[in-house]
Amino acid sequence: MVVLFFEVGNWEELEDRWEFKGGVGGLKSILVEEDISLAGLFDKIYGKLGLSRDTMDLVLSYSPPLNKKCSPLVLKDDEDVAALLASRSDSTCKIPLGVIVEPTEVCVYKKSSQESSDDTDGSHDGFHDNYFDVDYCDSEPTDVGSSRQKLPVFRNVERTDNDNGASVTQPAEGNPVVDPLLRLTGAASDKPVNVPTTEASDSTFRYGSDLHEGKYFNTKKDLKRKLSDIAMKGNFEFRTRKSNRSLWVIECIDPNCSWRLRASKIVPESTKFVIRKYVGVHCCLLLNRNANHRQATYVVIGEQVAPQYVGVEKGPGPKGVQTFARTKLGAQISYYKAWRGRKHAHTLIRGSPEQSFHIFPSYFHMLEKLNLGTVTRIEVDGESRFKYLLLAFGVAIRGFRYMRKVVGIDGTFLKGQYRGILLVATAQDGNGQCYPLTWGIVDSENEDAWTWFLTQLKEVIGDTDELALISDRVPSIKKAISTVFEKAHHGACAWHVAQNIKNKFKCADIMGSYWSAVNAYRCEDFAGYMTEISHRYPRVAEYLENEVGFEKWSRRHYPGLRYNITTTNMVESLNSMLVNARDFPFVALLDVIQEKMSKWCNDRRIVAMAITAPLTPSRESEFRPRFAQSNGRHTLQLNPVTYHVKGGELEGVVDIFNKTCTCKEFDIDKLPCVHAIAAVHHAQVSVYSLVSPYYTKEYYVLAYGETIYPVGSQSQWDVPNGVATRVVLP
Q1: Most buried pick, 364, 622, 681, 709, via CB within 10 A?
Q2: If you write DSSP's letter for every residue of 277-289 in order, what string do you get?
Q3: Residue 103: per-residue pLDDT
Q4: Cβ(260)–Cβ(251) under 8 Å?
């Protein structure tokens, strides 16, 4: 014989385990044979509790002795009982049995006489009858109580009001229903059981439910979304019994549960659905509730989490979506389902990749309409499949006249479904900030794509001797620039050249001399640094002179004017800014670009208008130390415009008319050097008169004086039919 302990109560799921919460009856024990059957075990427990099989059902379960969280095991056959008793053979393992007590046959459906006549075999299987199968689509929607006596009721109970005015369930006369926990405590046996009825259906859901017969939904999809949300929060599942364009019938996944809903269209030609019949009471066991259920589809998860991605570029990752589903929806979902839900949320907020291609013509039409002077281009092949696009906002085109004529160009990979390359050409404003001119998306980074993009850029900004184009040394870019631009000068990004040196020659220790050579203003200084490089690494010096060419990376030898811009960092910063948006569909990516540029225009306009100094903040901070260094210099006037300035480490001869100095800083940066400042101070001329206008507050304000407008909601677009019907395929 074996002593078996048990307790009456229910299971509660905790974070790391399932715990059985016993009732007021406390722990009980019975003596059973080692080979007892499941039926024999039920007899023992029914006898111990003094319960009748006619009024009460028992569910026997226990938590297995494992070192991890797992659901309780329900005893279903004799083998399960034997396994329970075998697990107790270890004296250190005393597993109590959990006993759940529930009323027998809780729900009974009352048929009308008309419905009973439809049962040809006279059988009845609860709710699996024509009550939820008859099509009520042509009938008027009923209110909450219109079919009350067709709703399920509990056998042998009736509703009364207690002393506090609350509605409770009383046993019907002659057939009382006794609370088993009251029996265990020795209380009077005629106390009622508080069993929920259909009138208390709102208490079924932990978070409440406002469903009722006659409730309308705009679409079937809205109704499904509502029911999925309720099911997840209530930790139950439902399945579809019937579904078509005008009808939806669902039931709890537990065949013994009373929960049912039937909805249909108001009229056949409408999209609106109305709940025709609804039974909101659950009588399924808690053990049948499932947090990882079928209603937690990636579509439902995506719809629920979608607001988290509005107005942000990144939003929650898959793990964040898992946390959202668990804390907000009560659903446990896999990482893969979270990933798909996140992807679906992106589609809801930003559109699908395929949709981007279809709306390109309309989208660009609205950009041009709302932003004067904006240039857009779409290039397709002979089968109308997308190849290239270009976008240049009119505000940026007009603002380029107030920028130094140095343009950095580069490309970066896109990571969306259709990949592609994002190309950008950007200038730098007088405050040292990026000023994007043109954006392009091409199928791949090759000579044809670069030639097309640079041709569009040339149409936007022109081609002059003053123009400098800075890029890395990708052969396709070099060849495209030489093909398209006849007057502009091409320079190499000094940072990319440095990376090539380190990778090719493994000589990172020479980088100090290299960067000094890059930034040298005078030929003598440049020659000294190159001599140092050639003595230590002759092959590096040969590479810089013959393979790259001094004129490509040294600002002293550059044939045009690149000011202090020696790298394409201004382009790289734009690529970094879009690191998350590079995942987006193309139109959503362009929306992010428009939002960024609109914000920059507004924010920088505010800053520019608040400036009190003559120069932009960054140039003013650079200029003031030079002004301090000019004090104490000896200045000798050679003629009305030329001055010889002595003192300090280096002398200089300044021409204040041509704005030059023999130190070459004034010539290249177009910002007065210490010699020029000393000269104009001697000449009693304003030092700011020698500063390039590109650095002034006036140009800074003019560059950001206009606004870039968004296209707004697609439903508000006004697009000619010829544009809207243009075909652009992925």
Answers
A1: 364
A2: EEE----S-GGG-
A3: 58
A4: yes
Give the relative orientation of helices 586-610 and 335-350 as an angle to the nearest 10 degrees.
70
Burial class (CB in 10 A: 0-12, 13-18, 19+), 701: middle
Cα–Cα distance measured from residue 328 to residue 308, given in angstroms and rounded to the nearest whole number: 12
Kindly indicate the confidence band of residue 667, based on its pLDDT and cuts at 50, 70 and 90. Answer: very high
**CA–CA distances in Å: residue 426 to residues 82, 590, 622:** 77, 16, 23
Residue 203 has pLDDT above 90, yes or no: no
Q: What is the phi-psi region of residue 549: left when phi exceeds 0, alpha when psi lies from -120 to 50, beta otherwise?
A: left
| pLDDT band (50, 70, 90) for residue 169 | very low
Centroid of chain to Cα 665: 48
Beta partners for 12?
19
Residue range 451-493, pLDDT digits in tens? 999 999 999 999 999 999 999 988 999 999 999 999 999 999 9
Cα–Cα distance between 366 and 714 in angstroms, integer?
A: 10
Q: Show the CA angle centred on residue 627, arms to residues 622 and 632, nearest 5°.
A: 150
Distance CA 344, CA 342 (A): 5
Residues 389 and 443 sit within 8 Å (Cβ to Cβ): no
User: For the segment 123-139, what is each residue's pLDDT rounded down to a tens digit?
Assistant: 333 333 344 444 433 33
Predicted local confidence at residue 723, as pLDDT = 93
Question: Are 228 and 240 contacting, i.e. CB atoms less than 8 angstroms apart?
Answer: no
Confidence (pLDDT) at 193: 35
**Is 163's pLDDT higher than 60?**
no
Sheet holding 634-639, edge to edge: 634-639, 642-646, 652-655, 660-661
Measure the CA angle with vertex 62, ends 57 and 63; round to 5°: 145
Residue 672: name the closest of 697, 647, 645 by CA.
Answer: 645
pLDDT of residue 84: 85
Token pair for 346: 């992106």
What is the 8-class DSSP label of residue 71?
P
Helix, strand, or coil (residue 470) = strand
SS3 109: coil
Residue 113, strand partner residues: none
CA separation, residue 91 to residues 11, 96, 249 (Å): 24, 13, 53
The dihedral sign for the CA sequence 700, 703, 706, 711: negative
Which segments within 337-420 are labelled E, that is strand? 375-380, 386-392, 406-413
Phi, psi (rounded to 5 degrees) for 356? -55, -45
Residue 235 C-alpha from the chain's centroid = 26
Percent of the residues in the chain that have a pLDDT greater than 90, as a whole number: 47
Average pLDDT, the chain: 81
